């Protein structure tokens, strides 16, 4: 896994922040595309995710354990506690936490990116994965805001990479249907078993990650459990 340049993450974050800044009080209290979450929940989650990634980067740089979150329960409680804040406060939090993450990336010595750290779920990965994870969080949850940014706005390289990773993730989970996909706009084909599903790269990823119902796709669409 390669390290995502911080400039790419900053560009994606700036676009999310610009859309979030246009939301008024009623909009941030309104539902997001994630069941049970308002837009305030999504924005709070994006901010706390940046702080979690920052802690992992600090751990790798200093050698002192600095966990992503105290626990899954603490993570959920922080999101719930912050979701009801005023629009300006929500946006300022996303912006400030993103700056802290960027600063931590730029402070990382080149020889520390391969240091393994432990995510909240218990898995250990080289800390460079925190950059890929952050870009994924920003781009997927930007769609979840339901504020004018949709799957078609995802960068093509990101979509192709995430399609492969999402299918691989499902393949590792017992009892999950197998599927083959064909991106009609790029020619990308992934998967070696299961029924064939066809559509644009973005529409395929939106469906596989639960951000679209697949109505724009062709083929037999099995039901998948939640992934993100």
From TrEMBL:
Short name of any one Pfam family annotated for the protein: MDMPI_N
Keyword field: Isomerase
Presence of keyword Isomerase: yes
One term of GO molecular function: isomerase activity
Mycothiol-dependent maleylpyruvate isomerase metal-binding domain span: 10-145
Domain of life: Bacteria
Entry-linked InterPro entries: DinB/YfiT-like, Maleyloyr_isom, MDMPI_metal-binding, SCP2_sterol-bd_dom_sf
Name of this protein: Maleylpyruvate isomerase family mycothiol-dependent enzyme
């Amino acid at each position: 896994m390669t390290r995502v340049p911080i400039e790419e993450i900053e560009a994606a974050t700036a676009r999310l922040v610009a859309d979030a800044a246009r939301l008024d009080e009623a909009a941030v209290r309104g539902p997001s595309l994630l069941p049970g979450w308002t837009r305030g929940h999504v924005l709070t989650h994006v901010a706390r995710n940046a702080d979690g990634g920052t802690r992992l980067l600090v751990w790798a740089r200093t050698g002192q354990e600095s966990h992503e979150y105290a626990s899954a329960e603490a993570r959920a409680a922080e999101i719930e506690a912050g979701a009801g804040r005023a629009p300006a406060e929500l946006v300022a939090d996303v912006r400030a936490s993103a700056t802290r993450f960027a600063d931590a990336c730029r402070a990382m010595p080149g020889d520390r990116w391969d240091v393994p750290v432990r995510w909240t779920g218990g898995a250990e990965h080289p800390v460079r994965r925190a950059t890929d994870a952050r870009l994924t969080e920003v781009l997927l949850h930007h769609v979840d805001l339901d504020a004018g940014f949709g799957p078609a706005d995802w960068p093509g390289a990101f979509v192709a990479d995430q399609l492969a990773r999402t299918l691989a993730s499902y393949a590792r989970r017992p009892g999950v249907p197998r599927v083959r996909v064909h991106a009609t706009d790029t020619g990308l084909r992934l998967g070696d078993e299961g029924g064939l599903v066809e559509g644009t790269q973005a529409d395929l990823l939106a469906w596989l990650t639960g951000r679209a119902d697949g109505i724009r796709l062709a083929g037999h669409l099995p039901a998948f459990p939640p992934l993100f």
